Amino acid sequence: MPLVRVLILNHMVQYARTGFDASFAALADATRRGVLEQLGCANASITDLAEKFHMTLTGMKKHVSVLEQAGLVTTEKVGRVRTCRLGLRRLEEEAAWIERHRQLWDARFDELDKVVEELKRREKVDGHKKRE
Amino acid sequence: MDTRRENEPAPTKNHTTTERKSERELVSTRTINGPARIVFEAWTKPELFKRWWTPKSCGLSLLSCEMDVRVGGGYRLVFSHPAAPTPMEFFGRYLEVTPQSRLVWTNEEGGDSGQVTTVTFEERGGQTLLVLHDLYPSKEALDDAIASGSTGGVGESFEQLDELIAALGTSVG
């Protein structure tokens, strides 16, 4: 049966449970909120962000690191440039989605096993006659 | 937390696998402890289907479930979720119905981008291997499904955070 919307909803609930504390800590700082807004418009390098917010590279690296640990930002280094973007990396997203899909069906199949077990027992009790 | 490997015996709990088999395909497998005849029955009778399709962990409550399990027949599932303001529906048609062996149905609530799902029931020594196969109309459709299930959720969470931050009286600056 269709899954996409269930997965979105579960992700929201799950994220709300596990991600909010770290998110709040990350968002307690005005600069970091500004960085998120900035990355919401376009990906940027740490150098870009440091210039934009009139900070040293080291200072900006620390802020980005806090955002990264909260799962709000991911970074990728290509050559000498570290690019920052919102959210999870594409491959991680796909792996996480597939794992949630698997968990949903695993839970369903556990319940299906219970229903099948009950039907099997009922057949025995009813003295089901084999027709082989 | 799942440390069991596939080739270890698991008399009570079988392992579920999910894999993206190709650009357009997603495949899940699981062995159920019962004959195909019974597993098929549990999949096609609404009163039985209702009991397993919305496990507690998925957060859904099934409000109604109509299934006309024959070729061309339709199904419609209405359910609620704590994070959804109004009930939602899943619906589609059965394209193939082969008792105890194979079911194929469409997923039409998302329009043209919906996948076609095939489930096969293969009996092996009193157990049934289920293979659930989702075929999306294009690579983009599956990519979009994955993207909307991932970043979509994050986006919603950001909105929720925004509201909370606004409520706390802080501002970006």
Terminal Cα span of chain A: 34 Å
The third-level CATH topology of the largest domain in chain A is Arc Repressor Mutant, subunit A
Quote the average pLDDT of chain A. Answer: 80
Mean pLDDT of chain B: 82
Q: How far is the first residue's CA from the last residue's CA of chain B?
A: 41 Å
The arrangement of helices and strands of chain B along the chain is: EEHHEEEEEEH
Which two chains form the greatest contact, residue counts included?
A-B, 54 and 63 residues
General form of chain A:
rod-shaped
CATH 2nd-level architecture of the largest domain in chain B? 2-Layer Sandwich
Task: Please identify which CATH superfamily of the largest domain in chain A we are dealing with.
Answer: Winged helix-like DNA-binding domain superfamily/Winged helix DNA-binding domain
Strands of chain A, count: 3
Principal-axis shape of chain B: globular
Compact summary:
The complex is a heterodimer of chains A (132) and B (173). Chain A is mostly helical and 132 residues long. Chain A contains five helices and three strands.
What can you see in these coordinates?
- The complex is a heterodimer of chains A (132) and B (173).
- With 132 residues, chain A is mostly helical.
- Chain A has 2 domains: 4-87, Arc Repressor Mutant, subunit A (Orthogonal Bundle), CATH 1.10.10; 89-132.
- Helices cover 70% and strands 11% of the residues of chain A.
- Chain A has a 3-stranded antiparallel β-sheet.
- With 173 residues, chain B is of the alpha+beta class.
- Chain B folds into 2 domains: 17-137, START domain (Alpha-D-Glucose-1,6-Bisphosphate, Chain A, domain 4), CATH 3.30.530.20; 139-173.
- In chain B, 27% of the residues lie in helices and 35% in strands.
- Chain B is built from 3 helices and 8 strands.
- Chain B has an 8-stranded antiparallel β-sheet with strand order 1-2-8-7-6-5-4-3, covered by helices on one side.
- In chain B, helix 1 (36-44) crosses helix 2.
- The longest helix of chain B has 29 residues, at 139-167.
- Chain B is globular, with a radius of gyration of 19 Å.
- The termini of chain B are far apart.
- The interface between A and B is large, with 54 and 63 residues.
